[in-house]
């Protein structure tokens, strides 16, 4: 292997003052500047003839911030009595697992390899012998690097155009790739690549949600986190779970988090930890995912339903008072769709009653009420990390957060077969755990959550501003105190929902209904409540439609949905 040490300054005769200054600066930092033309014969080479003008353009653009789509990683060079060892490690140097490696050699001197783009593949380029030039482009920025003089890997992020050129006669290039060969990931022509990266590819359909898009974005990080767990041999509990519990508690602004198996169990375990059971009543909204009510049944207590507000679908706090009886022990406000409930109003209604508040924050990771995060607003809160949630695992997961250490400990004991100390079971408990693989994945994703939520907000604002004038379409209200995180974007089309749904599906748009049947009308509750008991919830079930909204949707996709919704109301006005 012929990776050479960093050359002394006067080893490299440079042809231009710019190249000379850059090369000198680069060697001082042992990190190349934005544009390297360090090849001894750079200015004369066929590669330079081809890319020279482009480089000038690129240099002009790169006077500002350093592009983040390619970086140089110094290899670890270990000198040995009989040679040297140059090491590239996935975690330290590349940041992605390697699933494919190949060598490029014997390329005719005047020829390149032909450029191409990759949508999600990451690559590390190491010149093992000779020299080669690598040109990387993304979003109109270009970086050119001459590889071969220093023991470095050029690490190229996803979504880049790359071009290997100007091979020296003896050049051998090792390429480490984040995935195996997949023709669908290639973009072979420059104009197709530019169309793709500027999002100008015509939209012909929009999925409601495609989780593989998130994996394209952060798959390598997730894989490395999962591998960490597999390697550790700690498959139940352990440091990954503790680390996530601590970081999520502090994200929510509470002192404690207990990781559990799923959101339903987070709710029911907290109720049980409070000693709520047979003979007790818990107030829940009539419009929610069924788990909110099932959690109450699970502990043997009785769910008492309250109708909701039409504009938000959230529990109607004014109706809570009428539902309170001497048996009421708790209320579960649901921050449905990622919009917080008016917690001050709810607290005022419950003042001096001793009735506890358990937030159902399954859809509200990161949402804020008057500046405070959901999860820190009640006595305790339950989260779900179901894969489609704003913060979703790669399987089931859930968590309880609370400021009270004694309640957290009681819930943790119940979730651990009723034991604090192994084989000593103080209460009749169950087994409900957040597993370390999920915790490791969630830790990775927590680092992206605020950015993803901000993107959801942008897309929701686009819907809100583009659909506001449609007669017959009702948009979700955003209360003055709320910073919602748009887990769902629910619109209402009273009397025309099913026709709108069909129209959007015919346009190739994935839609959903959250939820088509109110809690009291579910078959599992037959006989408990009469039809018509909660008219707003029933009206919502008949009129709601959820439009696609995920951080991975492009603006063009959301505009496609907007156009399709508008065409429905324009073509078939009431
Ligand atoms: C409002 C609400 N509560 C509770 C749950 C239950 O969470 P899980 O699916 O993790 O049991 C969900 C998730 O689907 C939910 O949306």
Tally of discrete structural domains: 3
The rounded Rg comes to 29 Å
CATH superfamily of the largest domain: Type I PLP-dependent aspartate aminotransferase-like (Major domain)
| Small molecules (ligands, ions, cofactors) in the structure | pyridoxal-5'-phosphate
Helix share bin: 25-40%
- The helix-and-strand class reads alpha+beta
- What is the CATH C-level name of the largest domain? Alpha Beta
Give an overview of the whole structure.
The protein is of the alpha+beta class and 574 residues long. It folds into 3 domains: 19-201, Jelly Rolls; 216-446, Aspartate Aminotransferase, domain 2 (3-Layer(aba) Sandwich); 449-571, Aspartate Aminotransferase, domain 1, CATH 3.90.1150.10. Helices cover 33% and strands 20% of the residues. It has 15 helices and 26 strands. The model is unreliable at 1-43 and 50-64 (pLDDT under 50). The chain binds pyridoxal-5'-phosphate (PLP). Residues 262-264, 288-289, 291-292, 334, 360, 362-363, 384, 386, 396, 398 line the site of pyridoxal-5'-phosphate.
What is the compact description of this entry?
The protein folds into three domains: 19-201, Sandwich (Jelly Rolls), CATH 2.60.120; 216-446, 3-Layer(aba) Sandwich (Aspartate Aminotransferase, domain 2), CATH 3.40.640; 449-571, Alpha-Beta Complex (Aspartate Aminotransferase, domain 1).
């Amino acid at each position: 292997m012929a990776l050479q040490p960093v050359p002394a300054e006067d080893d490299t005769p440079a042809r231009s003052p710019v190249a000379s200054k850059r090369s000198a600066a680069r060697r001082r930092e042992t990190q190349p500047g934005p544009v390297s033309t360090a090849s001894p014969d750079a200015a004369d080479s066929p590669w330079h003839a081809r890319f020279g003008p482009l480089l000038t353009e690129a240099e002009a653009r790169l006077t500002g911030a350093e592009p983040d789509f390619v970086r140089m990683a110094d290899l670890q060079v270990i000198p040995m009595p009989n040679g040297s060892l140059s090491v590239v490690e996935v975690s330290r140097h590349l940041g992605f697992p390697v699933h494919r490696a190949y060598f490029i050699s014997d390329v005719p001197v005047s020829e390149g390899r032909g450029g191409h783009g990759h949508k999600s593949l990451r690559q590390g380029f190491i010149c093992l012998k000779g020299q080669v030039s690598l040109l990387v482009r993304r979003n109109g920025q270009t970086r050119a690097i001459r590889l071969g003089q220093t023991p470095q890997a050029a690490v190229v992020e996803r979504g880049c155009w790359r071009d290997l050129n100007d091979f020296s006669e003896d050049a051998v290039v090792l390429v480490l790739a984040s995935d195996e060969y997949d023709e669908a990931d290639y973009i072979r022509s420059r104009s197709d690549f530019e169309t793709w990266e500027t999002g100008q590819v015509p939209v012909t359909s929009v999925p409601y949600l495609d989780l593989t898009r998130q994996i394209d974005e952060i798959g390598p990080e997730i894989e490395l986190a999962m591998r960490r767990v597999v390697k550790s041999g700690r498959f139940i509990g352990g440091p990954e779970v503790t680390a996530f519990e601590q970081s999520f508690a502090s994200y929510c602004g509470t002192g404690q988090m207990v990781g559990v198996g799923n959101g339903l169990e987070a709710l029911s375990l907290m109720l049980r930890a409070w000693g709520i059971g047979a003979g007790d009543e818990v107030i829940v909204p009539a419009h929610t995912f069924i788990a909110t009510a099932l959690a109450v049944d699970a502990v043997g207590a009785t769910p008492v339903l309250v109708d909701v507000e039409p504009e938000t679908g959230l529990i109607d706090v004014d109706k809570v008072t009428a539902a309170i009886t001497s048996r009421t022990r708790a209320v579960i406000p649901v921050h449905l769709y990622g919009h917080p409930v008016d917690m001050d109003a709810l607290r005022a209604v419950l003042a001096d009653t001793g009735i506890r508040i358990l937030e159902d924050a399954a859809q509200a990771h990161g949402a804020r009420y008057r500046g405070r995060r959901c999860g820190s607003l009640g006595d305790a809160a339950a989260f779900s990390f179901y894969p489609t949630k704003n913060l979703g695992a790669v399987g089931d997961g859930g968590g309880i957060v609370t400021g009270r250490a004694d309640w957290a400990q009681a819930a943790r004991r119940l979730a651990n077969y009723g034991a604090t100390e192994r084989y000593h079971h103080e209460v009749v408990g169950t087994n409900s755990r957040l597993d370390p693989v999920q915790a490791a994945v969630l830790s990775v994703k927590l680092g992206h959550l605020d950015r993803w939520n901000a993107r959801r907000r942008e897309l929701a604002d686009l819907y809100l501003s583009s659909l506001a004038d449609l007669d017959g379409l009702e948009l979700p209200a955003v209360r003055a105190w709320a910073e919602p995180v748009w887990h769902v974007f629910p619109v209402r089309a009273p009397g025309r929902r099913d026709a709108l749904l069909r129209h959007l599906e015919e346009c190739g748009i994935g839609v959903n209904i959250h939820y088509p049947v109110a809690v009291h009308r579910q078959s599992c509750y037959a006989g408990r409540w009469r039809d018509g008991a909660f008219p707003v919830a029933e009206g919502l079930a008949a009129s709601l439609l959820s439009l696609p909204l995920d951080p991975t949707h492009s603006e063009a996709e959301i505009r496609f949905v907007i156009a399709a919704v508008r065409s429905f109301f324009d073509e078939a006005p009431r």
